[in-house]
Specification:
Strand content: 5-15%
Mean pLDDT: 60
Distance between the termini: 97 Å
Strand order of the largest sheet: 4-3-5
Helix content: 40-55%
């Protein structure tokens, strides 16, 4: 009888041990994948929010949403704008690409939301709200083409144009600009809190300033570019009369009408060797973007 019981127990153990092993492996695997970051679905975003399917870049459909992202009535990510404006209200417009859009971030963590929050804390006499005209693969020429469609509805007091990575438009603690691997190493959330950027908002730099990454001595470049930009300043008259800020990073596509391979090579060249291609090219992309804001 005891031998029979032992045989049954042994058989049960032989059967249950593999089952327990596989259940343990399954549990560990599920826990691993549960905690593992899942890449953001850009295709899912386009399918759920694109106003015109199949286009790239594309505008967003007003009122659409995807995961943590919601579009307002203007087809821009972020909260609805106040219907009435008073003397204290100030609007900041952010124009840029996917890093400004911040697809993987909750709304309060995005660059526009954090800058507006910091501005509200720093200037309690004003109330800041923001719009984000940004999205995947938004180039300067795309922004210049489509921003006028919504600008009249926004009437921004302060406008930022951020091309490429925002980290490449910020000075590091040593005074040099972050480029290449240095920019990659700077964490996104820390980047959005960078004091240089927040201080730029508070100062409202006057009237146009181009931040030129990757140049240790940019004096001659800045002087030449400043001369070329002087004639553009009158076009800002319709914006905030108490100053406007435009920030251009060096990864922006100067011309997005070229074939994809050529664009990749041009972008790589701009990033690794020249910063902005030339003062003339820098002035050109800024001029076209400013012209779209009239």
């Amino acid at each position: 009888m005891n031998e029979r019981r032992q045989e049954i127990m042994f058989g049960a153990a032989v059967l249950l041990i593999p089952i327990a092993f596989f259940l343990g492996v399954e549990s560990v695997a599920r826990l691993y994948w549960w905690n593992k970051d899942i890449p953001f679905s850009w295709g899912g975003l386009a399918e759920a929010t694109a106003a015109t399917p199949g286009l790239a870049p594309y505008r967003f459909r007003p009122g659409s949403s995807f995961e943590n992202i919601e579009m307002n009535a203007l087809g821009l990510r972020g909260p609805e704008l106040k219907s009435a404006r008073d003397a204290k209200l100030r609007r900041i417009a952010f124009l840029g690409d996917s890093l400004v859009f911040g697809a993987e971030l909750m709304e309060p963590e995005t660059l526009p939301a954090q800058v507006a929050a910091k501005a509200n804390d720093a200037m309690p006499g004003c109330q800041f709200e923001y719009v984000s005209f940004s999205g995947p693969a938004y180039s300067l020429s795309f922004i210049a083409q489509h921003w006028p469609d919504v600008r009249a509805s926004v009437e921004p007091d302060l406008t930022f144009v951020i091309s490429g990575s925002a980290s490449e438009a910020l000075a590091t603690r040593t005074g040099r600009f972050a480029t290449g691997s240095d920019a990659i190493e700077r964490k996104l959330r820390n980047l959005f809190l960078a004091p240089e950027f927040i201080d730029a908002v508070r100062r409202r730099l006057s009237p146009i300033r181009i931040l030129t990454p990757g140049r240790e001595d940019a004096t001659e470049y800045d002087e030449e570019l400043e001369r070329k930009l002087q004639d553009m300043q009158r076009t800002l008259a319709g914006l905030d009369p108490s100053q406007n800020v435009i920030v251009v990073g060096h990864r922006g596509t100067v011309d997005d009408t070229a074939p994809a391979k050529e664009l990749r090579e041009t972008t790589r060249h701009l990033r690794q060797f020249t910063g902005l291609k030339s003062p003339e090219a820098a002035a050109d992309v800024v001029a076209r973007t400013i012209a779209a804001m009239r």
